[in-house]
Amino acid sequence: VNPDLQRERDKCTFNVTELTNLIDGGVQNTEERKRQEDLLLKEGIHIEEVPSEYLSHKEKYELAVKKACLLFKVIRRMQEEENTGMENYRSVLGGNLGSAILADGSPLTLHYVMFIPTILGQATVEQQAYWIGRAFNLDIIGTYAQTELGHGTFIRGLETTATYDPSTKEFVLHSPTLTSYKWWPGGLAHTANYCIVMAQLYTKGQCHGLHPFIVQLRDEETHMPLKGIKIGEIGVKLGMNGTNNGFLGFEHVRIPRENMLMKNSKVLEDGTYVHSLSSKLTYGTMMFVRVVLVTDMCNYMAKAVTIATRYSAVRRQSQPKPDEPEPQILDYVTQQHKLMIGISTVHAFRLSANWLWHMYNNVIAELDTGDLERLPELHALSCCLKAVTTADAAECVERCRLSCGGHGYMLSSSLPTTYGLVTAACTYEGENTVLLLQTARYLVKAWQQAMGGNALTPTVSYISEVSTGRRS
Amino acid sequence: PPWDNSVQGVIHGFHRVAAGKIGMCVANIEKRQKSGLCYEDAWNMTSVQLASASESHCRAILLSTYYSETEKLASKVTPALKTVLLQLVDLYVVYWALQRVGDLLRFTSISERDIEQLQNWYEDLLTRLRPNAVGLVDAFDFRDEILHSALGSYDGRVYERLMEEALKSPLNAQPVNDSFHKYLKPFMQGKL
């Protein structure tokens, strides 16, 4: 070990393992994480003869598919041997291991992060019974398509239509314009053969807004696109070039009525539309993803600040005192200013993500009892937290990259790739400015409620306290 | 209320900033509506301030959550770790107070003297955290295979690793690349 780095470790004033256990949520979790890491890294899936940075766009995708399949094979074996469930997938795939093995994104991520959770959250029990087993076994590969070429965060502007035909008891999916083509979903281009499509539902000539439909994209044997399906890759991106982002257009594609996910809203055989409890219910998946996003930001920032801090302990530069050797750059207060805030931000986001996750679970539990009161508050909170944490994380990773000077510009530093992963989060799952304005809608309403002397929900109660001069 | 230059005081200051900004937005929207704009246009004209109010709201939540959640944790860890965790919270709160000092001047009674104290407090925290910087990132416990970085490996052999990675470039597989004979040499001899 580099002597400078060893000296740093020798002078640390606290027990590093104790903090690791705290971050993991306990000694057992640390041991379990290490065991999973050992198990998966021993497979050698992450080892590349030629660094993938030197591969073509097509080769990068093919390597990503190969790695993702090998990874799932190992995870499935882990499941069978240890009888673990979905959590095992998410902890391995969503966490550091997944991004270590698939540094430039995985074409199967959305299958686990969006396709399965949406079925769990929005399909009836019968529908779950039919789809979940096949999805878990990877008999089918799914993705989730909501954003279109011409519309994204403003989901009421989406143009893809699903028109109910009572004579055949089918929905007809159609892309009326080029701007209505689904655009961006990971795994959509060449990997998935099924997709949850968010489309404007029309029945009996009336539009009922956005609803989820399961659509088969490709033949399960030949993987050829089905009739009326126009599908392909959207092209090379700033980063995440392993995720196989695709476009999808429909030419009057018919699907059975049973393919509309009907846990919340329903369409009866004669075309009658049955309302859901609340239009906010379809946000369930998005809020789940945003909570996961905040946690992911912690991981990326933690990686970047680890790289930059260790490098700053090794790198020596300049000679402020003529008779002394060049100091470690970590001794410069300007360098500490760039890095320390990154370390504390990781902890701030981790604790906030845990807190938001508990709040999300409480609100979802209340939802099941029909109590929707805190849903708007949770929605507003998930919007602004996603916007602020992703923006802060992108800034933090870029600051870490710059704090490593020219070597931070090397792909072998891993900092540019990490920046590509983090900055993508500023625009997916809701563009940040639009999300901040969605939160502002809730804050303006809260302000007016406070002025009317009404009680406010906990996260905005400070508004009435401050406006009446009391301490929050 | 008088400014309180403590962590809780700064957090309360951020609540005042958020509430103040939201109130200003409501007032501006109403003023624009009175001047004849419809609500949507009044909203759009005020949207820069609205986005800023949301960011301040979120900042206040992040600060207060980080502070309160760490306070809960602090009682369960050894004194040495508690000291470092609380220093990190202080650093985060004071950093953002300095980053948003304009907002605090606008919506709270913070003074130049308070700001000077915050700046000194911040720099003092950097010095206190300096000995633990590497320990704090080691605690994230990333294996080298997961970190995947020539700069960040646990052993700190940065220069050797940078060179190892450089040699993996396919261009280094042969000392003379084909393009020399195809393009450069003919070009240099004026035959291209």
Keywords:
heterodimer; A: 472 residues; alpha+beta; three-stranded antiparallel beta sheet; B: 192 residues; mainly alpha; 9 helices; flat
Brief rundown of the structure:
The complex is a heterodimer of chains A (472) and B (192). Chain A is of the alpha+beta class and 472 residues long.
Task: Tell me about this structure.
The complex is a heterodimer of chains A (472) and B (192). In chain A, strands 1, 2, 3, 5, 6 and 9 form a 6-stranded mixed β-sheet that branches. A 3-stranded antiparallel β-sheet of chain A has the order 4-8-7, with no helix packed on it. Chain A is α+β, with helices and mostly antiparallel strands and 472 residues long. Chain A has 14 helices and 11 strands. In chain A, a hairpin with a 5-residue loop joins strand 10 (266-267) and strand 11. Helices cover 49% and strands 12% of the residues of chain A. Chain A is globular. In chain A, helix 9 runs antiparallel to helix 10. Helices cover 73% and strands 0% of the residues of chain B. Chain B is built from 9 helices and no strands. The chains are: A alpha+beta (472), B mainly alpha (192). The interface between A and B is large, with 97 and 84 residues.
